[in-house]
Amino acid sequence: MPINYTQNIALSGLSIYDPIEVGDPQLWIPAPDLEALLNKKLIGLSVAGLSLRSRSKFVKSEVCKALGYPVPATFTKTQPRFPGQLFDIYTQKSNNLQIWNEELSPTRRYAIIRITQADIIERVRVITGDTLAKLDTTGTLTQKYQARLVCGTQRAELISPVDTDLVENIVARKGVQLAQFKPTDNPSLGVVLPVSDVFARLLSMIGLSFKDAGSDQERRRGDALHAHVCKHLGYASYVDDGRFPDVRQQILEVKLQTSPTIDLGLVRPDSKAPLDMPQVDNHQIRHCDVRYALFYALTDGLTVSLTHFFLSTGESFFTRFPQFGGKVLNKKLQIPLPTTFFD
Description:
The chain has two domains: 5-140 and 329-336, no CATH class; 145-324, no CATH class.
C-alpha cells in the first residue's frame, strides 16, 4: 500500500525546518515520490502578475501544502530552503539554471519547476546534486572527484569480496530471480545480491562487444553497457531513470572506461553520507555501501569491446583506484538544462 507522506507529515506537527532522518519510512519523501507529489499539486497553478519575490513566496507556500507542512508566516533564509526534506526549489522559464552564492551539494535534492511563457506551472523535476552536476557542460564545476584506473595482469578483479557490514545485513541468503523486478526498484530485504554474486553474474561480460555510438556520445555508450549489465544480472528488461546508482535495486553503479580517468562527480565513493532512498529493514544505505562495476574497454570507433572488469564497494574503492584532483570547487553556477530535461 502506498505511503501517504502528506498525511503523515500533517499529523506529525513538523515544520519544514524540523530535521527528518534520511530514509525514515513514514516521513522522509524519496525523490521520485517528492517529484510525483509536487507535480500532482503544482501543475496548472498560475503565477501570472506576481513579482519575483511574491512568486517565490507563493510557490514555496504551495509546496508546503502539497507535502502536508504548515505554511510559515515568514520563510527563513536557510540552505536549503526546505531543510527538513533537504531540498531547494528553482522556478525556470528558461533552460539556464542559475545557483547563486553556494556550492552544489551532492546529497541535496533540487526541485526544478518549469513555468510556461503564460506563467503556468507545467512540470516539476526532482534530482539530487550529484545528478545535476552531470548536466554541467560549461566547465563551471571547475573540479570534480576523479580516480585513476590502471589495469593489472588480471582481466577481472573482485576488489571487495564481501559487502560493507550494513549491506551484509540485508543481502539475499539464497539465489534470487530478478526477472520479476525492475532495476530501478528500491532495494529491499532479501532481494539485494551479495557482491560476490554480482561479480559472478557479470564476469561473462568480459569480451563482449557492442556498437560504438561515438566518442561524443558517452551517455549512449553507457546506456548500452547498462542494458547488458541488467540482462546479465537477470532482469527481464532494461530500465534507467537517470538516478544514482544506475541499478538501484542492487545498489550498483556502472561505469564504462575507455581511458584511465574515472570521473566520480561530486561525491567520494567512500562517503558515509546517506543515499536518498527508503531504509531497508531499518538500515539506511550510504554512498560507501554502493557497489561500483567498472568495465575497461577498447574501441576502434565502430565497436566497443570490454577487456577488463572490476567490482568494488565504495568503502574500498580508493584502495584500488587512487584518487587525484582535490576537492570540489564552485562559485556561481550556470547549468544549461537539456531540452529534454522536463520530458
